[in-house]
Write a structure and sequence with these properties.
This protein has about 150 residues and is an alpha/beta fold. The protein contains five helices and six strands; from the N terminus they run βαβαβαβαββα. Strands 1-4-3-2-5-6 form a six-stranded mixed sheet, with helices on one face. Strand 5 and strand 6 form a beta hairpin. Helix 2 runs parallel beside helix 5. The radius of gyration is 14 Å and the shape is globular. GO terms for molecular function: antioxidant activity; oxidoreductase activity. This is Redoxin domain-containing protein.
Length: about 150
């Protein structure tokens, strides 16, 4: 279990899209970080729920996307940018072509969802296609306690 996970340093990303963020800039608000990949159908299928969380909690929750390549084909930063535009991913996107962020999170799966409280302590995480619904419920609970 990852219950003791503290929000890792995000500077290990190989590329950034939309805007760059730091761990420190995220503290003070709950943060949802999700891992996805351009070749993952389940990731793309889950994006509308992630976007509803982003839009519903705009200004009171940080949403960060981490692109974790699953194959050599997923390393193309231009393809990641194209998919981000196609699916209207407007939150910061960290590209993890070296899997250093995945290692820091202890993550090997996409989609994967990590919800941190305002202090940067892991509150809950879920994996897989149904994980997005569980993390949405967890975000609702966390923000109702704030």
């Amino acid at each position: 279990m990852k219950k003791n996970l503290i929000l890792p340093d995000l500077s290990m990303a190989t590329h950034w899209m939309n805007r760059q963020v730091t761990r420190e800039s995220l503290l003070g608000k709950p943060t949802l970080i999700y891992f996805w990949s351009v070749s993952c159908f389940k990731c793309k299928h889950s994006l509308p729920v992630v976007q509803s969380i982003r839009d519903g909690y705009s200004g009171i929750m940080n949403i960060i996307a981490i692109h974790m390549p699953l194959s050599e084909n997923d390393l193309d930063v231009n393809e990641v940018a194209r998919v981000c535009a196609e699916y209207v991913i407007s939150e910061p996107v960290l590209i993890d072509n070296g899997h250093r962020l995945a290692d820091a999170f202890g993550n090997r799966f996409v989609p994967a969802y990590y919800l941190f409280d305002s202090r940067g302590q892991l509150s809950e995480y879920h994996l897989g296609e149904r994980g997005v619904m569980r993390i949405r419920d967890a975000a609702d609970r966390l923000l109702s306690l704030s």
